[in-house]
């Protein structure tokens, strides 16, 4: 019989869920329902962290309000924004915005910032931090950008691109943790879990 802790991912992102599963965890998913548009911060990094904390807290509070549903799980909240010249870019609102983003990003560098927050609902311990990865964008032409936007993919991801999807050929490279660009930094998660007294190896399924 195992006494392995239950892990809850406070995010609807299939990419984040996939990263956690690849790392040996088997989290349950509870979507936070946080209104991201209602939150603001002075820098993209602070905004990513604020959103991650808000999502983790919302899910932890929901679990606390339903005693018996889950036994003191560890809650992981994450949120990503692209920092381009100090402006925080989340998911584009529509195809026109996604197209404008790519016209602005091509041939340049941005920083993908992902806020992470871990809450131990058993004792209230909490740790949070932001991971940052430099992304070097290639130079897709107008037709390539139009085709990419028409695929629908950029409408569902922060910054209107993804490292592991159709935009991969349009990215020249990154400096930093590739998982962070996909949506979650596993090295940072390990450190945050350690901060609340949990070893990631104890969570392996």
Task: Please tell me about this protein's structure.
There is one protein chain. By secondary structure, the protein is α/β, with parallel strands linked by helices. It is 32% helix and 23% strand. It has 6 helices and 7 strands; from the N terminus they run βαβαββαββαβαα. It has helices spanning 14-22, 44-64, 95-105, 142-150, 178-182, 186-195; strands spanning 7-9, 28-29, 74-84, 87-89, 109-120, 126-137, 171-175. Strands 1, 2, 3, 4, 5, 6 and 7 form a 7-stranded mixed sheet that branches. Helix 3 (95-105) runs antiparallel to helix 4. The longest helix has 21 residues, at 44-64. It is elongated and about 55 Å long. The relative contact order is 0.18. The model has no long low-confidence stretch (mean pLDDT 95).
Overall average pLDDT: 95
Structural class comes to alpha/beta
Radius of gyration based on Cα positions: 17 Å
Largest sheet: 7 strands, mixed
**Beta-strand percentage?**
15-25%
**Judging from the principal axes of the Cα atoms, what is the shape?**
elongated
Number of strands: 7
Order of SSEs: EHEHEEHEEHEHH
Question: In whole angstroms, how far apart are the ends?
Answer: 13 Å
- Amount of helix: 25-40%
| Distinct helical segment count | 6
Poorly predicted tracts of residues: none
